[in-house]
Amino acid sequence: MWSKLIKISGAVLAVVALFVLLVAAVSASNEIRLKHVVVKIDYAGENFFIDEDQIEETIFDLGYSIDSTLLRDINPGNLEHLLENNAFIQEAEVYAELNGDLHLDVKARKPVVRVFNDLGISVYIDHEGSIMPLSSKFTARVPVANGNITLMLHQYIGKNISELAKLTDHPDVEVLVDIYTVAQTCSKSKFWSSQINQLYVNRDKEIELIPRVGDHHILIGHSNDLDKKLNKLKYFYAEGLDKTGWNEYKVINLKYANQVVCTKS
After folding, report:
1. Distance between CA atoms of 177 and 24, rounded to whole angstroms?
2. For position 227, which CATH number holds?
3. In terms of residue numbers, what domain contains 145?
4. 80 and 118: one domain?
5. Model confidence band, residue 58 (pLDDT cutoffs 50, 70, 90)
6. Total structural domains in the chain?
7. Whole-angstrom Cα distance, residue 233 to residue 226?
8. What is the largest CA-CA distance in the chain?
9. Which distant-in-sequence residues (6+ apart) come within 8 Å of 184 by Cβ?
10. Which of 11, 103, 129, 190 is positioned for an S-S bond with 161, CB 3.0–4.6 A?
11. pTM for the whole structure
12. Residues 85, 166: one domain?
């Protein structure tokens, strides 16, 4: 009888002791102060639009300070939202450790094209279709799109291409969708990303590709059936231009199904 009571009492004391230790640990963790801000940036290639100092400034601009701010007073979710409002950041993860380290892990956006309107105002469009501003720190090596574009591009920084139709009825919205689709598709291919240097919007609001090799323009029209058009062009390069010469034609027209229509220089 007494043996059983002693065992039960011992178990109860163990549970109480564990509870006290947990409360003490939680209480102690609530008093941990910010010791270091650890920034990690995934640059998605070589797109150095932002640096560690700029990310750290996000923390200190909020009034947080080393050895003064308690970790319990830092809301990771709010910080993630704030960082992701930066037009150069695709996503952010914020978490703290018991040693006082606050980790800010961010992934930079990856532009696929730089678009100029007819006034010379330009923006980037990233691989997800987000419109990005220029940076004084870095210039991305991506194809340029220009020509007959009148939309005031800088007014839509931070927006996604897919949202523009809801924000404006400007006819260039469809043009931007075409530009993004073509640039994004080319960026996924080692061949096309090395061959296509420029996208030009002609008077008919159609896309012409300007290659690095050859004196010709490639008229693709709009971005519908793009994979078929590019496959058709690649075949024509291999079976046609390699035999006739890369400067034989002025325009290679891919607009028509199952045809490649060429205009000689």
Report:
1. 57
2. 3.40.50
3. 111-264
4. no
5. confident
6. 2
7. 11
8. 107
9. 112, 127, 129
10. 129
11. 0.83
12. no
Does 183 score more than 90 pLDDT? Answer: yes
- Check pLDDT > 80 for residue 71: yes
Mean pLDDT of the chain: 87
Q: How far, CA to CA in Å, does 101 sit from each of 35, 97, 251?
A: 6, 5, 59
Sheet holding 196-201, edge to edge: 131-132, 122-126, 111-116, 144-147, 196-201, 207-211, 217-221, 249-253, 261-264
Residue 63's pLDDT band, with cuts at 50, 70 and 90, is confident
CB atoms near residue 36 (< 10 Å): 12
Residue 29 domain flag? no
What are the tens digits of pLDDT across the range 185-208?
999 999 999 999 999 999 999 999
The identity of residue 76, as a single letter, is P
Same domain, 92 and 134: no
Give the CATH number of the domain where residue 93 resides. 3.10.20.310
Which domain-ending residue is among 68, 83, 108? Answer: 108
Would you tell me how many other CB atoms lie within 10 Å of the CB of residue 176? 24
Considering only CA atoms, which of 76, 82, 91 is closest in space to residue 57?
82
Q: Where are the alpha helices (DSSP H) in the chain?
A: 2-29, 52-60, 76-84, 164-167, 172-187, 190-195, 226-236, 242-244
Distance between CA atoms of 179 and 184, rounded to whole angstroms? 8
Distance CA(88)–CA(47), nearest Å, equals 9
